[in-house]
Design brief:
Layout (H helix, E strand, L loop, with lengths): L1 H9 L15 E7 L3 H4 L1 H6 L4 H10 L4 E7 L9 H5 L3 E5 L9 H13 L2 E5 L6 H7 L6 E13 L13 E11 L9 E8 L4 E10 L2 E6 L12 H13 L25 H6 L1
Parallel strand pairs: 1-2, 1-3, 3-4, 4-9
Antiparallel strand pairs: 5-6, 5-7, 7-8, 8-9
Helix pairs in contact: 6-7
The structure holds zinc ion.
Zinc ion binds next to loops.
């Protein structure tokens, strides 16, 4: 039903909207930088198949999802147009090599978000080119690597992203991220973290950009087993479902004829000659 409505409205514009994928399963791409795992034995021990595989594995147990992975050092960072066209929700973890992500790939991802693709931004990807571009802000924060405990408060218990969670959950050790966080005011605040050292942080937040839904989720430093934590896995899975596109509309600003008859317009001829 959504598809036929889109095609009829798209017919009035210069570029028809691509059809929504007809998959029974939600196509998800898990993107990982995949560099720490190759150089830091602590990270390799925690994530022997890469952090992206640890993020993807619990999603693959969900029969409603079709999950693939992509990494920085693949051609086009694993995100050629055909892959992005076939992706409804993209998750993004990066840290060391934000600057190596090519601007044309960033522009491609951003355009897909505007069309309706969901984007889940994880941990140090707060400084990724794609998140900064979509936020239009500094995305800066304060940080410390010192084995703080993190307590994530669920401040939106009725939200689909927190389904199945208690009022809070804890991670025994994590990197600290503290306020002020340089983000535009979120549409919805989902989690607030407290750290042993005294800081707090907006750990889960949503925005809409174009027709796409964006969720930032803080935990996930590479030297901790965070992506093996069942609560973290549940949040990411809930978020993937929440971020599912409801439309797919290509960006367009067409010059259009009137739908209803217009009154006489004496200036029309002049205007057309300009
Ligand atoms: Zn980190």
């Amino acid at each position: 039903m959504v598809v036929s409505m889109q095609l009829s409205s798209g017919a009035t514009g210069p570029t028809p909207n691509p059809p929504m994928p007809k998959n029974d399963k939600l196509p998800v791409t898990v993107w990982g930088e995949f560099r720490h795992e190759k150089t830091d034995p602590r990270v390799a021990a925690l994530y022997p198949h890469g952090m992206h595989e640890a993020i993807a594995a619990p999603l693959r147990t969900d029969p409603a999802l079709a999950v693939r992975t992509a990494t920085l050092d693949e051609p086009e960072h694993g995100l050629p147009p055909a892959v992005l066209d076939a992706t409804d929700v993209l998750t993004w973890w990066g840290h060391l090599a934000h600057a190596e992500v090519r601007d044309e790939v960033v522009a491609r991802v951003r355009a897909r978000v505007h069309e309706g693709m969901g984007l889940i931004v994880l941990h140090s990807a707060h400084y990724s080119k794609i998140f900064k571009a979509l936020m239009g802000d500094t995305c800066s924060l304060r940080w410390r690597e010192a084995n703080d405990k993190e307590r994530l408060w669920n401040v939106c218990p009725s939200h689909p992203i927190t389904a199945g969670l208690d009022d809070y959950f804890e991670l025994a050790a994590e990197e600290m991220y503290g306020e002020p966080f340089g983000i535009p005011a979120p549409d919805e605040l989902i989690f607030i973290s407290w750290f042993t050292g005294g800081e707090v942080f907006r750990s889960g937040a949503t925005w809409r950009r174009g027709h796409g839904r964006i969720f930032y989720f803080r935990p996930g430093h590479e030297t901790y087993p965070t992506y093996h934590d069942p609560n973290v896995q549940r949040v990411i899975r809930n978020a993937v479902h929440w971020a599912r596109p409801t439309v797919r509309r290509r960006d367009a600003a067409p010059n259009v004829p009137a739908i209803e008859p217009l009154p006489p317009d004496p200036a029309a001829a002049q205007r057309h000659h300009h």
